[in-house]
């Protein structure tokens, strides 16, 4: 018994020559579950309306009922391409709120993992961006390099994507000799691998045709659209939190901030490629200058693990409760609010905390770059062609896990 | 009796070509795999040699889903039109001297007619699926075929002028058994235009806009499943084979080679066809995809003027030589 359903909707007046497409949330090129409502005139986009929220998990609300330590695992699930960078961003913010001093070695370690995450994220970006434009070989080449980084992550903290490597006041584990050897090997070979990608796509006429003058934003417009990260620097705005408001060990690092000029997709592509080389050089500096010392601050050990060595935890009390107990014992929770931004691969990731002196944040707000980048899509895609929209989504480097939180 | 022999010949040709299609996919997957620093199919059989057969069986037993809103009869017919048109054009290909099912005088025209007919299948598939992505894919395919059909036809006019015939066997004979007789030497521009238009005609990268997966999901085949989906792929691979064959016949001297192979004369033809197929695959592994308007610009502003100029110069040279 089949019933014929009619999907024939009357066309509204004035809309007769519009072709409406709902691109997503299940579309191969929307990098997750982004939905874009398009009004097409032929292949030209007349109206572009991005819709978010398909991956909403309520992290900000969830955070209000969990302690600062427990919230750390939520940050892994924001931008799962670069979980390390999110961990560092979160810890930097909480440490500022709780006034915890981080030892030098773990600041270097944080810088190191941040840059590794940046490389992993940019490699994945290059892979998917190239695949979106149709070059499928770059995709697999990039995954080859990213795999090496993820292997190092796995050796460092036991997991490849959701790392939870940093802790309040430091990091969880120290690096071993074999990790450093592997990283050094990677750092040595990476620039030549990057050249390989450049020969594949950078001198390719089709690639240039597909990226130059596509999704152009001027410097003022880019600031107005709240673009950050490489998407902003592609338009020539010199803004990099690592350089201008250094955190972790970035003020000891010697690196440049690559800037684009034209603000089109190609300029942003060049920016990110140059950024990968800079990250590589930061990694090399980290390896060479890694200072000895403790990896966790003196005033934060009770925030690391519920049953710290030498401390007796009653067996019948669940670990979680004992953790809350420990946090509640702490006297250094301040009242007030704090906003700390860090430079994650996608742009500026900010954590805003309001604390009422309790063990849990009264309010945690995440300023995620992807969310603001997606809202820029509306302006950038207008008047371009359908194929350009794919290139623009790729060049903005959005990840929906971070956008929807 | 003659009809019986012809039927047997047809059966052999179809069987060989279908097997070829199956292994062309394997060929492509292996080559692209190695170009992309991976292995390609490895599990079914030795080095994945039985993979095409496994794929065939799999798609044969899959459910054939017909969307509720689709125009049923056209939806069902579209892949058949596509595949049938492509298979029919095999009949005029001369694999070796005298190895053609139908050695007709308008062989070249016949092949163009059939390949245009196959694009009807694509357009109908796009339209009959009654889905937005498929319709866009169908429209793109229509525009692409119209513009590149002209370019590919005009590029071969030079060859027709030099050989004075449309019969494929006679075109090969006109080039003769020598390296410098090949029309690629005397018609390099035509070969260039033909090669690019050939990529567009078979919907291959960098002109695979009708099925651009990152833009249109899968273009006109989005709503197809099971064997009908596989039929589009078979049509595409036969199309590649036919177009490569035309290239070999018209520009690379057909079945002639450096020396004659006694027992299996088509060997040179097949090697040349596979060389062109390899180029197809190499390009697919390397190049990104053009945008729709850029594709049109290349077709109308570059290829068609080039081939028209080529016709003019060929005509001029022929007149002066007389």
Report the radius of gyration of chain A as a whole number of Å: 23 Å
* Sheet with the most strands, sense and barrel status of chain B: none
Quaternary status of these chains?
A: heterodimer
Q: What class would the helix/strand composition of chain B place it in?
A: mainly alpha
How many DSSP-defined strands of chain A?
Answer: 8
Shape of chain B: globular
Strand content of chain B: under 5%
Order of helices and strands of chain A: EEEHHHHHEEHHHHHHHEEEHHH
The averaged pLDDT of chain A comes out at: 82
The string of secondary-structure elements of chain B, in order, is: HHHHHHHHHHHH
**Contiguous uncertain segments of 5+ residues of chain A:** 304-315
Which strand-content bin applies to the residues of chain A? 5-15%
Largest sheet of chain A: 3 strands, antiparallel
Largest contact between chains: A-B, 35 and 29 residues
Number of domains of chain B: 2
Which percent bin holds the helix content of chain A? 40-55%
Percent helix among the residues of chain B? 55-70%
Topology:
The complex is a heterodimer of chains A (405) and B (322).
Chain A: E1 19-23, E2 35-41, E3 44-51, H1 59-63, H2 72-76, H3 83-98, H4 104-133, H5 136-157, E4 166-167, E5 170-171, H6 177-202, H7 205-211, H8 219-224, H9 230-233, H10 241-244, H11 265-289, H12 319-329, E6 335-344, E7 347-356, E8 363-367, H13 369-381, H14 386-396, H15 400-404
Antiparallel strand pairs in A: 1-2, 2-3, 4-5, 6-7, 7-8
Helix pairs in contact in A: 3-4, 4-5, 4-11, 4-14, 5-6, 6-11, 13-14
Chain B: H1 2-35, H2 51-61, H3 72-88, H4 107-128, H5 132-163, H6 168-175, H7 183-186, H8 188-201, H9 213-216, H10 226-251, H11 267-286, H12 292-321
Helix pairs in contact in B: 1-2, 1-10, 1-11, 2-10, 3-4, 3-10, 4-5, 4-10, 5-6, 5-8, 5-12, 6-10, 8-10, 8-12, 10-11
